[in-house]
From TrEMBL:
Annotated function: Exhibits a very high intrinsic GTPase hydrolysis rate. Involved in the addition of a carboxymethylaminomethyl (cmnm) group at the wobble position (U34) of certain tRNAs, forming tRNA-cmnm(5)s(2)U34.
Keywords of the record: Cytoplasm, GTP-binding, Hydrolase, Magnesium, Metal-binding, Nucleotide-binding, Potassium, tRNA processing
Protein name in the entry: tRNA modification GTPase MnmE
Alphabetical list of PROSITE patterns matching this protein: G_TRME
Residues that, per the record, bind K(+): 234, 253, 255, 258
Length: 457
């Protein structure tokens, strides 16, 4: 793909979702956006108008001059626009037919239909946002829970990028000092205080490990928490499933790019998506209790799930299940059901950290159960202001960055010289740069050297 000639094109696309709406928007972006709009817009001449202004008029077909629609046009002159280029947004009536006609008019006048993600790609190439932010735009558009939206918004606002930029600055500073030693290698000087550097590396390591840990949560936010309800026949699994779903049945949607065997029932607890797996098994099982769900299938579900609700009938406790659930104890909540039939123990049960007493049939303790589910998975992490890594590419780069930091650490313990250390430092910087899309490390290092030390003044 020839990126440069691509960038010279002025692109056009319908920016609003397909279907009928009160308003539909066509967005033009590129050097000729305003000139192209002028060719099809009858109203004020747009090329004479200041940026961030709105104009009423008509779109005319360039072919026969017929009126296509009555519209409002919004003008953004670069660089103060989403893409950083001149942008014209044409708001017409939201009929797919009319919008298509406006698109045809725009392309006849010289615009090219935009490719997927091309506006955001241009915003990145024009320095309006970094790669992590561009990826957040995609996440935001795909968000279907509040937690997803929050994580994406935080990333879009640059919280995560800000963290990375700070890490990067610290490392570049040090790289500059180490590289400076290379220029004076004959004189056996150490500009870079090794003790200070060790502190810096351990500080960086703890920050990176915080980000790496947040990925578990990020993953939860992005993909939801898989939940298996396990219990012997008659424990009340389908009753519990119904009471959970009846209250807060979430909208089930297929998220592009994720593969799921089946569409699962989902539950939204405080903005986090919980996916109840194998609900068909539980449901189907009500007609064919004993046979349809074997212990093997339950075990597989338990293994796959991030969270297990082990449902036990207080009037008929079983130990057979408990044994094989043992390895999963950290992700299991023992739910004692049917406490309406045996009140006496329920408060004692609910005091235990990993157990809770409910009555699925009478809808008692369900709120507390949901709270427990949320706490077990999310804990305090989501309440912090810290950045949450939701993107596998970022996670991967951070892992490699961590490796490089370990190597630097080991290198210093072994008393490596600056030139060898600098290889690992560059590697760490490279992976950091991969996340935000800025890997021109050399120029930065030189810039810092010259900026700070005025060599060759
Ligand atoms: P499953 O086999 O685990 O799916 O269990 P079901 O949900 O089909 O429930 C089995 C029986 O227990 C049904 O008759 C339910 O009405 C009853 N049951 C479920 N939860 C409760 C409860 O909290 N209290 C009482 N008393 N009965 C319950």
């Amino acid at each position: 793909m020839n990126m440069l000639s691509d960038l010279q094109d002025t692109i056009a696309a319908i920016a609003t979702p397909p279907g009928i709406g009160a308003i539909g928007v066509i967005r033009l972006s590129g050097a000729d956006a305003i000139a192209i709009a002028d060719k099809i817009f009858k109203g004020r001449k747009l090329s004479g108008q200041p940026t961030h202004t709105v104009h009423f008029g008509h779109i005319l077909s360039p072919g026969n001059g017929a009126i296509v629609d009555e519209v409002v046009v919004t003008l953004f002159r670069g660089p103060k626009s989403y893409t950083g280029e001149d942008v014209v947004e044409i708001s017409g009536h939201g009929s797919p037919f009319i919008l298509q006609k406006i698109m045809e008019a725009a392309t006849e006048a010289g615009a090219r239909p935009a490719k997927a993600g091309e506006y955001t790609q241009r915003a990145f190439l024009n320095g309006k946002m970094d790669l992590a932010q561009a990826e957040a735009v995609a996440d935001l558009i795909a968000a279907d829970s509040q937690a997803q939206q929050q994580a994406a918004l935080q990333q879009l606002r640059g919280g995560f990028s800000g963290d990375l930029a700070r890490l990067r600055d610290q490392l570049i500073n040090f790289a500059a000092l180490i590289e400076l030693e290379l220029d004076f290698s004959d004189e056996d000087v150490e500009f870079a205080d090794r003790e200070q550097f060790r502190d810096l590396i351990s500080h960086l390591k703890s920050q990176i490990s915080g980000l790496l840990n947040s990925f578990r949560l990020g993953n939860v936010i992005k993909n939801g928490v898989s939940v298996a309800i396990i219990g012997k026949p008659n424990a009340g699994k389908s009753t519990l499933l119904n009471v959970l779903l009846n209250e807060e049945r979430a909208i089930v949607s297929e998220i592009a790019g994720t593969t799921r065997d089946t569409i699962e029932e989902t539950l939204n607890i405080q903005g986090v998506l919980f996916r109840l797996i194998d609900t068909a098994g539980i449901r189907q099982h009500t007609t064919d209790r004993i046979e349809s769900i074997g212990i093997e299938r339950s075990r597989q579900n338990a293994e796959k799930a991030s969270l297990i609700l082990h449902l036990v009938d207080v009037t008929d406790p079983d130990t057979s299940v408990i044994e094989w659930l043992e390895p999963f104890v950290d992700k299991t909540i023992t739910v004692w059901n049917k406490t309406d039939r045996e009140e006496s123990h329920s408060s004692a049960i609910s005091d235990q950290r990993s157990a809770i007493a409910i009555s699925a049939k009478k809808n008692i303790g369900i709120e507390a159960l949901k709270h427990r589910m949320y706490e077990l998975v999310i804990g305090d992490t989501i309440k912090t202001e810290n950045s949450i890594v939701t993107n596998a590419r970022h996670y991967d780069a951070l892992l490699k960055m961590m490796d490089s930091l370990e190597a630097i650490d080991a290198g210093m313990s072994a008393g490596l010289t600056g030139d060898l250390l600098s290889i690992d430092i560059r590697r760490a910087l490279h992976y950091l740069g991969e996340i935000t899309g800025q890997v021109e490390v050399d120029r930065d290092i030189l810039g810092t050297i010259f900026g700070k030390f005025c060599i060759g003044k």
